[in-house]
Amino acid sequence: MIHMTGISKVYKNGSVALSDISIDIEKGDFLFVVGPSGAGKSTFIKLIFREELPTKGQLVVNGRNVTNMPLSEIPYLRRGLGIVFQDYRLLPEKTVYENVAFAMRVIEAPRREIQKRVNSVMDLVGLKDKFRCFPNQLSGGEQQRVAIARAIVNNPVVVIADEPTGNLDPETSWDIMRIFERINKSGTTIVMATHDKTIVDAMRKRVIAIERGRIVRDQVKGVYGYED
Ligand code: ADP
Ligand code: ADP
Questions:
Q1: Nearest 5°: phi and psi at 32?
Q2: 3-class state of residue 6 by DSSP
Q3: How much is the pLDDT for 122?
Q4: Keywords for this entry (predicted)?
Q5: Which ligand minimizes its atom distance to the CA of 86?
Q6: Which of these, 72, 96, 127, 195, is most buried using a 10 Å CB contact count?
Q7: How confident is the model at residue 143 (pLDDT cuts 50, 70, 90)?
Q8: Which CATH code of 3.40.1280.10, 3.40.50.720, 3.40.50.2300, 3.40.50.300 fits the domain covering 1-80+156-223?
Q9: What is the three-class DSSP state of 111?
């Protein structure tokens, strides 16, 4: 599903974010990416959706070669991915319904199909009664549920998330993680960078640890492995 071979990333200012990373992430994996601040986790995530290009190495995502992809192909890559950020990134002037429906309008899905599918994903994230709210009328946890609904509305094969519970209290974080677990149980691959030790240690999913741009650990039923 995601195959990295000898991937390095050096930013223009000379910062070495990733050094010679190789990893295979398979369909249905639930992968936590852990490690100290500045280790390269966000860069690892950004390479997958072609927000950044690797300096060296091969990267194949969902059958597409990301390293030599023309700009015109990036939207097709991203259609197969759902992306969730720590700060939700909803469109503030659109309702909850429109934020989620928008992702389907972009691919010109028929109106009936949009209504049906938006209803069904809003049900899945437990937000059926908030269709007409605007993002600033929702709690952080509710906004993150909307962001997850938007990420999965087009049935992506992979959902990638960068610190999705980073702004949420522990109880709300668990609500969000249960949603990710449900999405994963339906066969969707999940790749999530996180600092949430309690969640990683409780869920016992695959864990990779990145330190100074290198994968230093790859465990099948892993633990967080740091004290913070
Ligand atoms: P993490 O997500 O683990 O905190 P990042 O991938 O954000 O790590 O950062 C890895 C390294 O790359 C850090 O040294 C960081 O300062 C650097 N870095 C990240 N983004 C950029 C950028 N846009 N330009 C230059 N350096 C960057
Ligand atoms: P348009 O295509 O003009 O945007 P829609 O019928 O798709 O019209 O939606 C209009 C508004 O009605 C949406 O912004 C949303 O707030 C609301 N809406 C649409 N479908 C539903 C639904 N199934 N449940 C609740 N509200 C809905």
A1: -95, 135
A2: strand
A3: 95
A4: ATP-binding, Cell cycle, Cell division, Cell membrane, Membrane, Nucleotide-binding
A5: 1
A6: 96
A7: very high
A8: 3.40.50.300
A9: helix
| 146 contacts 133 by C-beta, under 8 angstroms | no
Within the chain, all domains assigned CATH 3.40.50.300 are found at 1-80+156-223
Number of H helices and E strands in the chain, helices first, is 7, 10
Which ligand 1 atom lies nearest to the CA of residue 46? Answer: 6
pLDDT at 228 over 90: no
User: Tokens 């010679």, residue?
Assistant: 20
93-127 pLDDT tens trace: 999 999 999 999 988 999 999 999 999 999 999 99
Pocket test for ligand 1, best of 7, 10, 15 (most atoms within 8 A of CB): 15
Q: Which atom of ligand 1 is nearest to the CA of 162?
A: 2
Closest-approaching ligand to the CA atom of 98: 2
Q: Tell me which residues have their CB closer than 6 angstroms to ligand 1.
A: 11, 13, 15, 17, 35, 37-43
Place of tokens 């936590």: 32
Q: DSSP state, 104?
A: H
What are the backbone dihedrals phi and psi of residue 180, each rounded to the nearest 5 degrees, phi first? -60, -40
